[in-house]
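User: Could you write out the 3D structure of this protein bound to NDP? I've included everything you need below.
Assistant: Certainly. Input first, then the structure.
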Amino acid sequence: MSYVDEVLESVKKKNAGEPEFIQAVTEVLESIRVVVDAHEEEYRKVALLERLVEPDRIITFRVPWTDDKGEVHVQRGYRVQFNNAIGPYKGGLRFHPSVYQGILKFLGFEQTFKNALTTLPIGGGKGGSDFDPHGKSDNEVMRFCQSFMTELYKYIGADVDVPAGDIGVGGREVGYLFGQYKRLTNTYEGILTGKGLTFGGSLIRTQATGYGLLYHTVEILKLNGQSLKDAVCAVSGAGNVATYAIEKAQELGAKVVTCSDSTGWIYDPDGIDVELLKEVKEVRRARLTEYKAERPNAEYHEGKGVWTVKCDYAFPCATQNELELEDAKTLVANGCKGVFEGANMPTTLDATKYLQENGVLFTPGKASNAGGVATSALEMTQNSERLSWSAEEVDTRLKMIMTGIADTIAEAADRYGMTGNYVAGANIAGFEKVAEAMIAQGVY
Ligand code: NDP
Ligand code: 2IT
């Protein structure tokens, strides 16, 4: 049996209750098969793949918190420190009721390759909790964050592990987490990114994932003789990534006609009004029904459905496995020419395959959404320098990094005779860097 198949089989056996992790590992190992086959003896000798698919460590802890009525709740907290071959563990924290070890292992695994693609010195990690911030008061969120950090602070540090936001964790949560770390340690260090601008945050970090997704898309389209000008786009999600993806897409001349949240979706034929979306989601923390209420031409639909809208390009920016085979078929039938992942692993494996086989340009999240973590690394740099860069400087670097990633993954795919297969290109380029660093550092 080939080395890849052996390791895949063992991963499936050992992680049977964690389908998302198995899915992420399958995608990566399948697409680096050509590289592994060419170096089989060298890799086997140091059990490279076995070490690559096993997190360095997983920390799990109890997070008790008291709600506004005085009732005590207990949540589970995690930090998966996946791989620090090329830098300190780096990756977000997710607060969502679906969070369990398998989700965070898949995210930490993906993060390792994504962070390698940024060219910056950051390893892969992810954490979070099954806490649901929806409907909680600011004080409840604050008490939860304080309790979460009271355990987490023992395991992180500016040169050890630097968490940030993800689903359910934005500026508000990062602020509370940072405040508690400071109290517990009496230090003032860049131990989180996505901080507020008055206490060490970087300009453009808030916008970075969405903007970066579009910078990356522009370059991929350019390589394929296409452009966003006057293109109709479908975006899913209505959070951090989706909002700034919509903003940048419209700035670049496209019309974005959809967005969605966990209860329903919007079709707005006039193009999404980003300022209204921000008001509804960032300020009021309300449902998209409130967006509809202020846009007479827009439609609100319950449940799933953004991928049924005719579009030139699609940007899944909500959550994992939100774009399934049936959605891929509808997109292709409607003439969609490109799918660019803003979320982490939003497309199922069979949907990805279908899109690629039908000539749809497709870039995986670990390449196209790397702008967030890349800008987090720029925040770490600014914190180390004790300086703040201008928005122009950060944005210029972000653009360079995201354009560079597009070129890197295109080049890696070419090198292995898989021109245009950006999934293979991203996995190969990320893997090559991590593998080289792991081998150079000996067996650990
Ligand atoms: P947010 O919490 O800001 O927004 C998430 C959005 O997706 C919300 O609109 C939410 O709905 C919706 N959503 C979440 N879970 C589900 C679900 N199970 N079903 C349907 N809709 C859902 O998160 P982000 O925008 O930060 O993250 C979105 C994706 O991007 C995630 O996959 C994340 O891992 C990834 N990502 C984030 C980065 C970042 O910098 N923030 C960087 C790179 C990737 P509702 O409004 O109802 O809560
Ligand atoms: O998935 C991701 O890359 C993020 N949630 C951002 C991580 C970070 O450290 O900025």
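The chain has a mean pLDDT of 98.
User: Perfect, thank you.
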